[in-house]
Amino acid sequence: MHVRAERFLSRPMAVAFARYGLFALTFSAFQVKGDALVYFNLLRRFFGEEPDFAYAYQFGSALWNAPFFLVGKAFGIVFGFQPRIFHVSFEEISITVATNVAFVLTLYLGWRILRELDLPRGPGVLFLTAFGTPLFFYIVFDPAGKHAVDTLLLTAATYVFLRCDSRNATRAALVLGALCGWSLNIRWANGAFFLVLAIALLLRERRRLVGFATVSALIVASVIFALPATRGIEYFFPIISQPVNAAAERVAAPPGGIVLEVTPLDTSDPGFDPTIPARMLFSLHRGLFLWTPLTALAVIGFVLALRRARQTGANYPFLLTLLAAALALLCIHVIWPRWDGGFSFSQRFLTALFPLYLIGVAELVRRARLVVYPILVATVAFALMGAFVHDVGYDGVSERDGIGRILEVANSNRDNLRRKVQTDAEDRWKYLWGLLEGRDSKCINEP
Q1: Which residues constitute the domain of residue 396?
Q2: What pLDDT is stored for residue 441 in this prediction?
Q3: Sequence-ordered strand ranges (E) for 258-311
Q4: What distance in Å separates the CA atoms of residue 294 and residue 127, rounded to the nearest whole number?
Q5: Is 12 among the domain residues?
Q6: CB neighbourhood size of 11 (10 A)
Q7: For residue 157, which of 223, 207, 112 has the smallest C-alpha distance?
Q8: What is residue 244's predicted lDDT score, i.e. its pLDDT?
Q9: What pLDDT, on the 0 to 100 scale, is given for residue 314?
Q10: Nearest 5°: phi and psi at 315?
Q11: Around 137, how many Cα atoms within 13 Å sit in the side-chain half-sphere?
């Protein structure tokens, strides 16, 4: 009897992607701003433009964005570099496209991981995990940053590590090393994650694989790190911040806008703070489990999967290694005083642990599908509510605000928030309909 091969892009998955596409078209941001300007301006300078500033700092995500940027640049050459569609340049739009392609590939690799582990891998598991973790915010609301590419690389590394016991183990080790070298140029903290993978291979007496991976990592990391120097781009940029005791500044908002409270940057560097990992998980300020509670359920599910694997003997070393690598990535932040990530949503520095969250959610679904799905949907709704409040903003918004302030605003301004989100959605679709009719109401060059 002929058995059809399982496909990633099944009909239910295609429907899920179509629904995501509608959501993304409605709410996606296209403007490059904040920290993302560092990576965007690096690309502009590298390919011959003259931005206001450009320097190379943890810029590895720009390597992924580069091909898409060049397509946007080509459109700019043909149609002009002034802001066009969505009131931004084609180059900026290209970054949002690059982020969404990274997201799709991340979901595909996550699906492959779940298939290897024989866990549920339908669109419900994949998309609920994506929208219940910080990942969705950095795909839709803040797509110009590096977290989508960072998540893609750690998801790819997780899958490749799983394949290190296959017949193509040498090839897998070389790819794993290359991913490590690339990932180190995105976030140096990722070195802790890959170090645990290397130790696990050594404990299995796979020294040859570790050797191949190490050489590959060194070569790729060095080549990527050297790229800005070939174009004369500096690696450091002087940052002058206000003293810690400076008064907070109130900035007047435009009519109908919000008032933003700019608090002075705390430049004190404690060097080592053992409480940071706990605060990254449990604090009201940026605690992962409080902002995005699905992640807490996912960790429980992962522990259950690990326990089951220990009993059955299937994939136990892999799951144990992934847990240790995730803990290493968490704990390395004890030497990173700015663990909160400024105006970030949830705990953005743990976004890339998507494979762990995905496995945990899949295990919960495997055990109690009918009970778990409503709970997962509720946690996703909670995360979306927080994301919309965080994205829309409110009077007196400050980087010191936590999830408590978000909930307070959501409760006190429920009607205004709903109206603002609805208005933004309607305006976006009116604009898109205008584009279909050949009108661009946001084009600054229109008569």
Answers
A1: 30-412
A2: 65
A3: 260-262
A4: 12
A5: no
A6: 9
A7: 112
A8: 45
A9: 87
A10: 65, 15
A11: 28
Q: Which amino acid makes up residue 162?
A: L
What residues in the chain have per-residue pLDDT under 70? 1-4, 84, 237-270, 441-447
Neighbours of 159 (CB within 10 A): 21
CA-angle at 423, arms to 92 and 252, nearest 5°: 70
Whether 419 is covered by a domain: the verdict is no
What's the confidence (pLDDT) of residue 400?
86
What would the DSSP string read from start to end of 30-80?
----TTHHHHHHHHHHHTT---S--B-SS-THHHHHHHHHHHHHHHHHHH-
Count CB atoms within 10 A of the CB of residue 304. 15
What is the pLDDT, as a whole number, of residue 435?
Answer: 82
Please give the structure tokens belonging to residue 209: 């694989």
Is residue 70 situated within a structural domain? Answer: yes
pLDDT of residue 266: 46
DSSP letter for 234, please: B
> Tokens 């946690």 map to which residue?
379
Q: What's the pLDDT at 239?
A: 53
Instruction: Specify if 102 maps to a domain.
Output: yes
For the stretch 349-405, pLDDT in tens is 999 999 999 999 999 999 999 999 999 999 999 999 999 999 888 877 888 889 999
Q: Are 140 and 182 in contact (CB under 8 A)?
A: no
Which residues, including other chains, have CB under 8 Å from residue 67's CB and lie 6 or more apart?
98
Q: Which residue, among 18, 206, 35, 414, has the nearest Cα to 214 in the 3D structure?
A: 206
